[in-house]
Design brief:
Layout: E1 3-7, E2 10-12, E3 17-25, E4 34-39, E5 45-51, E6 58-60, E7 68-73, E8 78-84, E9 92-99, E10 106-109, E11 113-117
Parallel strand pairs: 2-11
Antiparallel strand pairs: 1-3, 3-8, 4-5, 4-9, 5-6, 7-8, 9-10, 9-11
């Protein structure tokens, strides 16, 4: 069955860096666009970034553009989010997700990984 497992979260200082990973199993990873989303305490779900199947098209929310980088390794079935210069407002649970066969909805999510940005 489809499984998405995030890792790499933790406590990071403002201005530091952190890399999140999402290990994918149970489907043909290279055939699907992938997404990162996050949910801050007391707030709704927010789209962060997404990437096409080949990894050469990437999109970012304005709030993270220029600081975060999404990438993927199709040989390793792994999605990444490199977080540089994080800010306290980036504190959230981060989720990876895959699109469904139509490409217009997300059908599987990971369990999330907590990122806390604080000095």
């Amino acid at each position: 069955q489809v499984q998405l497992v995030e890792s790499g979260g933790g406590l990071v200082q403002p201005g530091g860096s952190l890399r999140l990973s999402c290990a994918a199993t149970g489907f043909t990873f290279s055939s699907y666009w992938m997404y990162w989303l996050r949910q801050a305490p007391g707030k709704g779900l927010e789209w962060v970034s997404n990437i096409n199947t080949g990894g050469d098209m990437t999109y970012y929310a304005d709030s993270v553009k220029g600081r975060f980088t999404i990438s993927r390794d199709n040989a390793q079935n792994t999605l990444y989010l490199q977080m540089n210069n994080p800010k306290p407002e980036d504190t959230a649970v981060y989720y990876c997700a895959k699109v469904n066969h139509t490409g217009y909805a997300l059908d599987y999510w990971g369990q999330g990984t907590q990122v806390t940005v604080s000095s």
